[in-house]
Structure formats: C-alpha cells, structure tokens
Amino acid sequence: MSLYAIGDLHLHFQSELKAPGQLRDPVWRNHEAVFRRNCEGLVRPTDTLVLMGDHSWGRNMAECEKDLDYICGLPGRKILLRGNHDMFWDAKKTEPLNRSFAGKLFFLQNNYAAYEDYALVGTKGYTFEGPFYVRGGRIIGWDEEAERHAQKLIEREAERLRLSFEAARRDGYSKFILFLHYPPTSILERNSVFTAMAEEYRAEQVIYAHCHGESRFHDSIEGRHHGIMYRLASGDYLRWMPQRIL
Ligand SMILES: [Fe+2]
Ligand SMILES: [Fe+2]
Predict the structure, then answer these.
(1) Where are the domains of the chain?
(2) Ligand 2 centroid to 170 CA: how many Å?
(3) What is the pLDDT of residue 15?
(4) Could you give the CA distance from residue 1 to residue 68 in angstroms, rounded to a whole number?
(5) By three-state DSSP, how is residue 165 classified?
C-alpha cells in the first residue's frame, strides 16, 4: 500500500482552457493521456492518490462532469483537495459532495482521511502572492489592500485546517501528513500560520501544489524545515508522475 500526491490537473474536457502557459509549454501537451498512463503504471487499486486541487477549468458541476469522471476512472482511492479554480466545489457544501461521490471520491476539507496509522489532513490554504512592487530586482513594497484581503483568507483557511487536525485528533490520530493547495509560505516568508500549525501538530510532511510554470517552482519551502519535510507536487513540476509520499 502506497500514498501518492499530485496537483493542478486543470482538466478541460467540457470547458475552455484559460491558462495560455498550458498552450505554450510542451509539458501540458496531451497531459491527460500522459497522466492517466503514468497512474495506470504506478498506482495499484489498494494505493491512495491525493489530488491537490485545481482539478478542472469548469465553472460549475455541469461543466466538470467529464473531468470528475476521468478522475473517478484513475486507479486507487482518490482524495481531492480544493484549489482556487475549483468552482464546482462550494466550500460550505463539502458534506453533500462527499455523499454524492461516496465510494468513488473523497473531498478533504474540515475532515480527514485515514491512511494506515496516519491522518491525511488538509485545506486549500492561501498565501499573499502580490502584487509586489519591484525596483532593481528588489521588492520595495506591495499592495496593502490586497495583503489585507489575503490575510482574511489565510485566517479562514487556518480555521479550516485546525478543524481537520482536530477531527483526526479526536479519533485518536497523532501522526499527520498535511496537504495544502497553496504553498505554505509566500516568496517573502520562511514561516506562516500553516508552518506553525504543522509544527504544533507535529505533521511529518507538508505537501503543496499551485506553483506551476518553471519560474514558480521554488516559491516556497522545499526539503526539511524545522524537522518537517516540505514538497511541491504540482503536476507540471512532477511531469505528471505522482509523487510518492509514504
Ligand atoms: Fe493550478
Ligand atoms: Fe491554484
């Protein structure tokens, strides 16, 4: 039994592809077929595959049906995280979503999934991504209103993450793997409310996605930091090969 993760599939079987980078960069060419082939060669039916958000470009459930069908058809147990582009997933309606996909997909938010003696916890997360003002290659300031707005989203996501940890802890779990869609820190930080919570609950690993395109692959923490392993697992970074976590 193995645990794998990957994010940012950005499927568009029924919707318009909106990221021009996906059209230019050869890594996105036919990526649905490449990813499915990689999964079929790697993931066994008893394995768990965490898909870390930005599943679909669809603007609502009707536009995501084929994308979710594709995900249902991948091997293994599938656990989904909410990304910033997942318009089909109303943050307040995770439970109904879990009921309607019971036995096929599990949507991770305000809850947890068991994997051996680990609890898989997670939420979308958030981090301030600017706009920054740059002079001579150095950041000299940023949009304060955007930063205030980001701070509110960060606090809400931190509350959701705590619910996830606490649900697992109540059920007796003390070993955690933490999944975030957004990176845990901005390009200016080494620590955040998310790294603090990972340390508080002694998570063994923090896996994140959202950073795609080569210029963004090193925006946040990589490797060991305060005793915790941090890894980026966005799809194009991994060239569509799921990352083994455990
Ligand atoms: Fe994405
Ligand atoms: Fe994203």
Answers:
(1) 3-244
(2) 30
(3) 83
(4) 24
(5) helix
